[in-house]
Design a protein that fits this description.
- With 150 residues, the chain is an alpha/beta fold.
- The chain has a single domain, classed as CBS-domain (Roll), CATH 3.10.580.10.
- It is built from six helices and six strands.
- A hairpin with a 2-residue loop joins β2 (34-41) and β3.
- It is elongated, with a radius of gyration of 20 Å.
- Keywords: CBS domain, Repeat.
- Pfam families: CBS (PF00571).
- This is CBS domain-containing protein.
């Protein structure tokens, strides 16, 4: 399984100029905890940062005395962007997450254009499903044995 197959497409994004208030509303309305900050070029979105709900609280509300009305996404986003490629396997994605202390990583194509986002929870869900399939092999084997040798 690779990042491109497991990632969520239709990523919620923002540009640097968007107000923090509007970004928070976008997160709320989309039921997400992050926005990939993008720069548009030639009809494609290129990730340049991340904005999380935690960024808004820690770098916005807590340091600005609660008044974020004049802040834009570019003021508090994390601009050291950690990326994975859509052909990267899940081991590579997990290693990247662990090495950088992040739970969500934008997925890009060979031209560095945004194609999706993959979260730690996506990977856990995938492996949980695979473990269920493994467990079914054991129960199927036992059932087949009972049918063959009653």
């Amino acid at each position: 399984m690779d990042a491109g197959k497991l990632c969520t497409r239709g990523v919620k994004t923002a540009q640097r100029e968007l107000s923090i208030v509007d970004a928070a509303i976008r997160m709320r309305n989309s039921h997400v905890g992050d926005l990939v900050v993008i720069k548009k070029k030639d009809g494609h979105d290129f990730p340049i940062g991340m904005l999380t709900d935690r960024d808004i609280v820690i770098s916005g509300v807590a340091t600005k005395g609660g008044d974020v009305s004049r802040l834009n996404v570019g003021d508090i986003m994390t601009d050291v962007i950690i990326l994975v490629r859509e052909e990267d396997d899940l081991e590579t994605v997990l290693r990247t997450m662990r090495a950088n202390g992040v739970r969500r990583v934008p997925v890009v194509d060979r031209n560095d254009a945004l194609v999706g986002i993959i979260a730690f929870d996506d990977i856990v869900g995938y492996f949980a499903s695979e473990m269920t399939n493994l467990a079914r092999v054991v129960s199927s084997e036992n059932l087949a044995e009972r049918r063959r040798r009653p």
